[in-house]
Design a protein that fits this description.
Layout: H1 2-8, H2 17-44, H3 61-76, H4 81-94
Length: 95
């Protein structure tokens, strides 16, 4: 939609807030209409609102340990100085 707007506008014309709001509104309406079509297609194929599963999932001790370890690691990650150096290097490469 933005490419079409750029092809139809000359220079800065078409970049006002009014045009941008209109584009976002049209995009939202198209998305809702497509979602409705998909939902009705699912209903016509027998979808009843749930996704049945043959296996029952339960939280195990290994799941809790893994979650605690990942959370602990993510809290300590900013404290490692090597990450700052690596981040600065990557920003320098891409800037």
């Amino acid at each position: 939609m933005i490419r079409a707007r750029n092809m139809r506008s000359y220079g800065e014309r078409g970049k006002e807030i009014k045009i941008v709001v209109r584009i976002v509104g049209i995009l939202f309406i198209r998305t809702v209409e497509r979602a409705e079509r998909i939902y009705f297609a699912m209903l016509s194929r027998g979808f009843q609102g749930d996704m049945p599963s043959l296996k029952r999932y339960r939280i195990k001790a290994a799941d809790i340990i893994f979650t605690v370890l990942v959370f602990n690691f993510s809290l300590r990650l900013p404290l490692i100085s090597g990450n700052r150096n690596a981040g600065a290097f990557i920003q320098g490469v891409f800037s």
